[in-house]
User: Fold this.
Amino acid sequence: MKKNSYSIIKKSILIMLPIAVLSIIFIPIRSAIFTRILLLPIERKYDIKIEFSKSTIMLSSNISMNNVSILDKNKQLYYIGDTEIKYNATELLSAKKRASFNLKRLKVYNNVRILDSVAEILVISTLPQFEFDEIDCRAEFRRSSIYIDHLIARNNSMHVEGGGLIGKDGLLDCKLKFSFAKSVTDEIPDAIKKTLLTKEDGGWRSIKFDLTGNYKKPTLSISSSLLKLNIMEGIIGK
Assistant:
């Protein structure tokens, strides 16, 4: 009798265990505590605090959060209306860990050194408010670095595209393309437009940069090949 009972219990466990595992993987988890545990390593590494109003986690495929605030010593740095991180759970266990990020309604509340540098190079007082309707990004997480193979951020007057490597200790080796609407380029001196900016469709103009240094102290420089080409075109066009 005891053997039969033990056999029944064992079979029940064997049946229920896969169901329990599948439930954890495929049923949405709406626990703020669970999300905070996942975010803790990021908070510690970059010395920030991440707050959100609600979150949903599908362990097999994605994480989404609403009304996300990123703070540094209780000072708000960023606000993101909606955040979604997509991934393949199997890939995360392999050497190549990939994920895609979609951010909606991003606002930045502190000074952005990169934008300040771009404004200085273009000889204008300021760039459009650093607020993007949507940002899409694909990244691969390697042993000690992050490789971004696709980044695009847009608002009505400025687009930013690019990619590159974020290495150990936040070292940067990236290429960025800034595109500006006519409302912005009208403020740029003609000499700068001819030598630094490339014409785009719809009256937009663009400029490419190399981004180096680290994420705390980034260095922005104009792509040398593009600069030489635009200088020649500016001279010929005169």
Summary: Residues 2-237 form one domain. The mean pLDDT is 78. The first helix runs from residue 2 to 26. The helical segments are 2-26, 32-46, 89-92, 113-122, 182-185, 190-196, 224-237.
